Amino acid sequence: MTRNVVFLVAPPFELLDLTGPYSVFAEANAASGSREYALQVVSTSQEEALMSTAGLSLTSQYFYQNFRRPIDTLLVIGGRGAMRPYNEDVLRWIRTRQGRIRRLGSVCIGAFLLAATGLLDGRMATTHWQCCDQFSHEYPNIDVKKDPIFVKDGPFYSSAGVTAGIDLSLALVEEDLGVRIAGQVARVLVLYLRRPGGQAQFSDLISESGTVTDNALRDLPAWVRGRMARGLSVRTLARQVSMSPRTFARRFASEFHQTPASWVRKMRAEGAKTLLQEPGSTLSVVARRCGFRSVAALRNEFILQFGTTPKEYKLRLGS
Fold it and tell me: Which of 38, 79, 95, 294 has its CA 20 to 30 A from that of 87?
């Protein structure tokens, strides 16, 4: 049975919020060898051309009021058009169809438009990390989760910023067609399958060096990444940046907003995640190279940071 997947777009929209998830479902059709999904782009505007925030435009297939087909999965796409002011007719259109839709979700700040319907009240949801505080303020009846890449609460789904919509879409494909097909889609699109929904929205390793203002500490993440098999005590870290342990601890807390010990554990877990992507990597070798005392210690920290076990992560990667 072909499932109608509808992408509701309120221009101007974020290009990747639409094209990323669209590509996942389209590739699932190719991977399965059958037309599992019929993809429809439905606009809140009567204009034929849908303008993106990047300046590129796409052609809409339907104006929402003219769309009469049954909907299996409805995804509200993010972008400036998904923010206030809202068209009450659009909100009513979503509300009246909700009972006949198997899955209803949002990508990035599309959560604002979906939340405006009232359907997320009393439920968990997420959105782009930069907008979570605003989302909580505007919709106090929603349990806003700031960290996860995507959240599922009953038939309602929401994803974090931009590319997290790809992770959500892969999860939906996995629900429908299984891990094997989702894995094929991920490999064709050159993805690490899908990140678990509970994983943090962005990596500390990616973000930290660019936000550190203390010149003495700026290169510390790179230095630690190259020495994770070794002991990384506060004294060792302080000596590397030519500070006393007390001064180091104070300045570190000011820059990284956590203790050095907590930060090192996260760094080790991030390093393990990278090594697990190498074909043939074993948990014992990864644990040793990242400075964990045992595979059990690696497993515990990996679950804490990413919401899944190292073994499950490797199975999803197929490595």
Answer: 38
Q: Which CATH number fits domain 3-188: 3.40.50.880, 3.40.50.2000, 3.30.1330.10, 3.90.1010.10?
A: 3.40.50.880
- CATH, range 204-317: 1.10.10.60
Angle between helices 164-177 and 179-188 in degrees, nearest 10 = 140
Give rounded-to-5 percent helix, strand, coil for the chain: 50, 15, 35
Helices and strands in the chain, H and E counts: 14, 11
Helices 15-32 + 179-188 axis angle, to 10: 120
Tens-digit pLDDT profile for residues 124-178: 999 999 999 999 999 999 999 987 889 999 999 999 988 999 999 999 999 999 9
Give me the helix-helix angle, 15-32 and 164-177, nearest 10°: 30
CB 203 within 8 A of CB 267: no
Chain centroid to CA 200:
8
**pLDDT in the model for residue 190:** 80
Q: How far apart are CA 83 and CA 88, in angstroms?
A: 13
- Sign of torsion, CA 177 181 182 188? negative
Nearest-angstrom CA–CA distance, 86 and 299: 46
Q: Of 64-78, 216-230, 285-299, which gets the smallest average pLDDT?
A: 216-230
Residues of the chain with CATH 1.10.10.60: 204-317
Picking from 35-49, 51-65, 194-208, 248-262, which range would have the lowest pLDDT averaged per residue? 194-208
| 194-213 mean pLDDT | 53
User: Encoding tokens for residue 243?
Assistant: 């500070």
For the cut 50, the answer to whether the pLDDT of residue 206 exceeds it is no
